[in-house]
Amino acid sequence: MPEKAFCSAVSSYPWTLRSNLLLHWRFGALTMLAFLGMAAVLTIDGCNVKSFVEGWRFRREYLTHGHLNLTYTDESITLNLSYIAIRNPSSELDFQLPFPANLTHTELEPEPETETKREPETELQPADVLGSSESYQNLTQPSWISVELEPNLTSNLLARWLAPGGEPCREIRSVEIAIPGLDDRQLIELPAGETHEFVFHALYEAGKPSCLGGDYFETDLSGETWKSRPVVKDFGNGSYSLSLQVHPDFSGDYNLSITLLYRHFEGLKFSPARFAYNKELRRIPIRFYNATSRLPQLRTCRKSDFSREVWAGRWTRHGRNDDCQISNDGRYRCLPPNFPCRNPWCDGALGKLESNGWVYSAHCSFRLFSADSAWNCLKNRWIFFWGDSNHVDTVRNILNFILDLPTESVPRRFDMNFTNPKNPSQTVRITSIFNGHWNETLNYQGLNSLKNDAFRDLLKSYFNESTVPDTIIMNSGLHDGIYWHNLRGFTVGARDAAAFWAEILESIRRRGLTPPEVIYRTTVATGGYARTMAFNPSKMEAFNWVVLDKLKTAGLLSGVIDDFDMTFPWHFDNRCSDGVHYGRKPAKMKWRDGLIGHQYFVDIVLGHVLLNALCAR
Q1: Per-residue model confidence (pLDDT) at position 12
Q2: What 3 state SS string does 368-396 have?
Q3: Residue 599 to residue 124: CA distance in whole angstroms
Q4: Is the pLDDT of residue 389 over 90?
Q5: 167 falls in which pLDDT band (50, 70, 90)?
Q6: Average pLDDT, stretch 456-475?
Q7: Distances (CA, A) of 487 to 149, 174, 265, 542
Q8: What's the rounded Cα separation, in Å, for the pair 548 and 261?
Q9: At residue 505, what are phi and psi to the nearest 5 degrees?
Q10: Is 531 in contact with 537 (CB distance < 8 Å)?
Q11: What pairing do the DSSP bridges indicate for beta strands 132-134 and 196-203?
């Protein structure tokens, strides 16, 4: 019964049988050739279909942008999408973005496992669409922007810093930017609460896109009651993205400014002042309107919240006295001391910050301590500070403004016990060791100060007692920006510093004692004139990342306080700093910018944040 091998629909004509046999043979041969060809392609240089699909998907997701308005109802589970494509105004910018090679990358928090709605294939026109991309990974509720360090940060940063970028790109320097989605709009209105991400491109003198990354952009989003630093991501090829977000409670008119401070890692050079570009490229009015979206409510910080290595916070204003005048002692007592903070942005007496209503919050909000609650937190504890002179200012401000201990000054190096004047049973031991130089009267050694044997022995002596500090609060400091000739040298210094402290903590464990927690307080963003100096924000931010990476690798990191993020919104002038300090003693005298008096509240807020890190459960 050989005929059963053929379909019953086969013709009874004899010539059709031969032709079908021939067709079957050719079909089998072609199938085998196709299979062998696919197998060969899939094995070449590890390339596979998955990588191709991911590359296409990235291009599709990143080059397809628009405005996304979402409404959600629990009963019907209905999503209403209004999507407006923004066309590329110039064919010069029509090129493919690669996979991101960011040193920091933006995440949405939290990250629930939700299924995103895919658009029809017919809407994909990557060559024509480029502009605003609003994050909608969580369609039920917007999420706060968050930032994380890239894995293997130090090695990746070094590789990008050393890479020449190819012969055509070697001498290119950015001078302008193009922001499709913002540049081509007269009136910019965005819904508050949502994340708005805009891809932009650095341009060189010919007006064409640069093909190198590493440009350092200073960004600022400011309104009457809100100041924040919009997150910038570097894709390594001259393309960047900018993420904007404002809470609906602060809807209103804003200005977005973008300043190109340095080109292609030139801020990391040993003498960066002559390479500073320092040009404001955009000042864009934006109106954020109150929409139906609601961000998750901030909660007061817990101990676990300080495990976040990079913050993306904001300053908000909850009171204001426009008639406030500086007092003879240099202070700005603009609001009553018991003026309350507004929930959930902080918890406590806002007036005691002497900030005329400003307060900082990040992925959580902070408790503002009274003197009694601060003493209850610190009693019978030993806090060890190791860092630059900004630590000195912070300790003095904690004593004066939080613990109600009038203190004219504190030295760079001291070890003292302080007693609560209202309750002599409450004491706190504070040790502060300046790390700008092994000689406390000198400067500009930074982490290299650990090369001095006497200085190392001094530090070890505090951890050889029968009791050891409860907490170490450290930073690398501005002095590193001057001492280290290049990024490669600093990575070695950071590695050696982490090894030194790891050795100390291990020696404590061997003695059967509990080692102290280690909290890294990132170095400030230098302000005003200091933005183009050897300790410029570009260099200090990179150095902060490297130290965090090394401390984390050594298993030392218990928590982080991101003072760089806290100070950045105030670093554009010298109203809140002398360029390198945000906590100088109040004084009614001419300040760095020629005005009488200065604002010192940024460091007072830092003091409260430190207490949150020490006392949170």
Answers
A1: 33
A2: CCCHHHHHHHHCCEEEEEEECHHHHHHHH
A3: 51
A4: yes
A5: low
A6: 97
A7: 17, 22, 10, 9
A8: 24
A9: -65, -35
A10: yes
A11: antiparallel
Taking the C-alpha atoms of residue 549 and residue 184, their distance in angstroms, rounded to an integer, is 40
- Give the tokens for residue 586: 């109040």
- Tell me whether residue 253 is exposed, middle or buried, using C-beta atoms within 10 angstroms of its C-beta: 0 to 12, 13 to 18, 19 or more: exposed
pLDDT at 164: 64
Q: How many separate helices (H) and strands (E) can be counted in the chain?
A: 11, 26
Average pLDDT of span 402-417: 96
Identify whether 272 is preceded by a cis peptide bond (ω within 30 of 0).
Answer: no
User: Helices 389-397 & 601-615, crossing angle to 10 degrees?
Assistant: 80
Q: Which residue has the tokens 């609060």?
A: 473
- For the segment 495-510, the average pLDDT, to the nearest whole number, is 98
At CA 518, angle to CA 517 and CA 523, rounded to 5? 155
Q: Please calculate the CA angle 102-106-112 and round it to the nearest 5 degrees.
A: 135
pLDDT at 42 over 50: no
Q: What are phi and psi of 332, to 5 degrees?
A: -115, 85
The pair of three-digit structure tokens given for residue 295, joined into one six-digit string: 């961000």
Q: What is the pLDDT of residue 29?
A: 52
Q: pTM of the predicted model, to two decimals?
A: 0.79
CA distances to 399, 447, 458, 565 from 502, rounded to whole Å, are: 30, 15, 16, 27
- Which one, of 184, 177, 82, lies nearest residue 136 by Cα? 82
pLDDT tens digit string along 116-128? 333 333 232 222 2
